[in-house]
Amino acid sequence: MDWKNKVVLITGSSIGIGRELAAQLLDKGACVVLNARNASRLSQTLQAFQEQGYQGIAAVPGDVSNPADCARLVEAAQQHFGRLDVVVNNAGISAEGDVGELSPEVFRKVTEVNYLGSVYVTQQSLPHLRESRGTVFFVSSIAAFRGIPGHAVYSASKVALKTLSEALRVEEEQHGVHVGIAFVGFTENDPQKAIYDKDGVLIPQPSRDFVKQEPVGVVAARIIRMIERREARRIFTLLGKLNGFANRFMPVVAGRILRRSYHQRKEMG
Ligand SMILES: NC(=O)c1ccc[n+]([C@@H]2O[C@H](COP(=O)([O-])OP(=O)(O)OC[C@H]3O[C@@H](n4cnc5c(N)ncnc54)[C@H](OP(=O)(O)O)[C@@H]3O)[C@@H](O)[C@H]2O)c1
Description:
Layout: E1 7-10, H1 16-27, E2 31-36, H2 39-51, E3 57-61, H3 67-81, E4 86-89, H4 104-132, E5 135-141, H5 152-173, E6 178-184, E7 194-196, E8 202-204, H6 216-229, E9 233-235, H7 238-249, H8 251-268
Parallel strand pairs: 1-2, 1-4, 2-3, 4-5, 5-6, 6-9
Antiparallel strand pairs: 7-8
Helix pairs in contact: 1-6, 3-4, 4-5, 7-8
Bound molecules: NADP nicotinamide-adenine-dinucleotide phosphate.
């Protein structure tokens, strides 16, 4: 696939996986529309790319959980570059806390950003993607295979992307739009990454040193390869593949492992 003159919109691309995706795509010659809520951090990212000599970039601040912002975002891609070839629904937020203790506001916010945010951006983009016979891509997680105790709201939002993409794939076949989804495993986090605590306060992502994490560059390169090959779905990391296999073929064993790790984490506080 020749990325030159292709226009890619990546939600949540000021840091983390989204930023790395943008960097690799710019390097391949694509034009990229960056997005995030925090306008000053987004413009720092834009400036950093421009200082590296990249030119086909636009940065559009906005919240994907706001349908009007999503309409503006897609419109901006058209205005800047006159077309839209790929949309990566990457913006996401995580939350820690048991179902019984999480504030309803956290349930609402995570669902609105991770699930509805992807719905709104996708709906706005479809007319343009049909024209370009392009791609809509969803960044899900290996947490979608089974509800993770202590992370139920995140798991639920990511499994919703799975069912959304399955239905959309069939619906859009006739229009030539490729629908892809990646079940991403543990990835090295940006130092600025934040998650919600049970009360909806943003806190730094707790350390995940107990598990092997994939470099962000490897994750971004895999997503790009999937788009190039128009792949439907892929599970990332060995742990992710084992997790997918166990939940499908040995659900009782998978449930026991999760239960044990949940109680161990509780004991450690
Ligand atoms: N990191 C992992 O281990 C891992 C594993 C599996 C799946 N994933 C998924 O991969 C995606 C990226 O994760 P990441 O670790 O790279 O995240 P991250 O480092 O926390 O970055 C998230 C990006 O999304 C933006 N964002 C958050 N809420 C937004 C909203 N409402 N509207 C627009 N932009 C928003 C953030 O900027 P602002 O805060 O300024 O908006 C930031 O640019 C997420 O969907 C995540 O669930 C990550």
